[in-house]
Structure formats: C-alpha cells, structure tokens
Design goal:
With 210 residues, this protein is of the alpha+beta class. It folds into two domains: 72 residues, Helix Hairpins, CATH 1.10.287.110; 134 residues, Urease metallochaperone UreE, N-terminal domain (HSP40/DNAj peptide-binding domain). Helix 1 crosses helix 3 and helix 2 runs antiparallel to helix 3. It is elongated. The N and C termini lie far apart (60 Å).
Length: 210
C-alpha cells in the first residue's frame, strides 16, 4: 500500500504534518472506535484502516526525523553552572502540580533569573492517542479485537524524561507562588493539562542538602 493511500484513509492531503496526522486519527477514532456503542462491522473496518494508516504514516515521519537529525552536527554541550535552586517537596492537586523549592535571589536589584528543572513530560500515547485501548489481530486471521494498548499499558499516556526551562521575570522575583500554565499533569480522555505552581522561598544562600 502506498503512502498516498494511507493519507486517503485518514482524509489527509499528501505532505500532511505530524500534528495533522494525529488530529485526523483522533477524529476517526471518535467516529469509528469499536469500543463505542452502536458500531457496525463497517465502522470497525474503517477504524482498522485508519489505525494502520496512522501507524505507517507516523513510522515514516519518525524515519524522516531520524534521517534529518543524523545530517545535523550535534550542538556542543551547554555549560553547567551550579544549580540556583533546591527542591523541597511536591504534591498533586487534580491535574495541577505544586513544587516547593528554594531559589537564589538575583544579586542585582530588578533582575530576573532562570531555573532549569528536571521534568517528566507526560503526553498522550501516540499509538492509541490517549484511548488506552487499540485493536489486536487474532492469530493470522483478519479478525481484530479490542485490547489494552501495548505502548502505554492502558494508561493512555507516556512519560519521557526532560527538562523544564523556567524564565522568571523581575516581577516574579520575590513572589511566594508562580503559576506556569499547562505545565502540569495530562488527562488523555479530556485532552486537558493542568498547571505547574512553584512555591519558592527566596534565599541569598541555598541550604545544604541532607
């Protein structure tokens, strides 16, 4: 099957972006997913075609991205100055995450600062698009059944290690609460993302770690 046929199965033009592919499959999944009530065999067949097209197009896009990265010289490692913050604790309230931490107050009056936090980015699973379930083939037959997504193990989300660069403006320095929009937990079924709320204690010297 050619790539243009996969595009047709998702009602997409050739050259569609990764975002377009994900959005098109998400719409098809809402319309034809076999777990929904009232689905016919024709609906299931449409979903299977859409799922196959989505997986193949995403594989092709990933291969192109790897090839592009391979042709670009890696950037030199950034310098690693001493951290200007110290973690205290965290808690979750709904989809919001609260971080308590010490932050070094900038020496210059009216100056801002930047904090680089280790981060676990949580996103919708690219295989099931947050559904937690997909279709699995029964043996060598052309028969499919709903099954737990093997990529996310039914969670609907995947987690990857990352870093969060937080630029704090001079107006933010000294505040006891700073809200970063859409940097919190992700809920796949509603496609909603919470906020990250920093609760800093501003200090002139970081306390020693225990």
């Amino acid at each position: 099957m050619q790539l243009n046929t996969y595009h047709q199965d998702l009602n997409l033009p050739e050259g569609a972006s990764i975002a377009d592919i994900k959005a098109a499959f998400r719409q098809m999944a809402k319309s034809y997913h076999p777990d929904a009530a009232g689905r016919t065999s024709a609906d299931v067949e449409k979903f299977i075609k859409a799922q196959t097209a989505y997986q193949q197009l995403m594989k092709t896009a990933a291969a192109h991205n790897r090839a592009r990265r391979a042709t670009v010289a890696p950037a030199p490692p950034a310098s690693s100055p001493a951290a200007n913050w110290r973690f205290v604790s965290s808690r979750e309230v709904g989809l919001d995450i609260y971080y308590r931490l010490y932050i070094l107050k900038p020496e210059a009056a009216g100056a801002g600062c930047q904090v680089t936090l280790p981060w676990q980015a949580r996103e919708a699973c690219p295989r099931c698009l947050g559904q937690g379930r997909t279709l699995a083939r029964l043996g060598q037959n052309s028969i499919y059944r709903p099954a737990t997504c093997p990529r996310c193990q039914g969670q609907g989300t995947i987690t990857r290690e990352s870093r969060l660069e937080v630029s704090l403006t001079p107006e933010m320095v000294g505040r006891d609460k700073i809200r970063l929009r859409r940097a919190g937990l992700y809920h796949p079924s509603t496609a909603q993302r919470g906020d990250l709320i920093l609760e800093p204690t501003w200090v002139s010297q970081l306390p020693r770690q225990n």
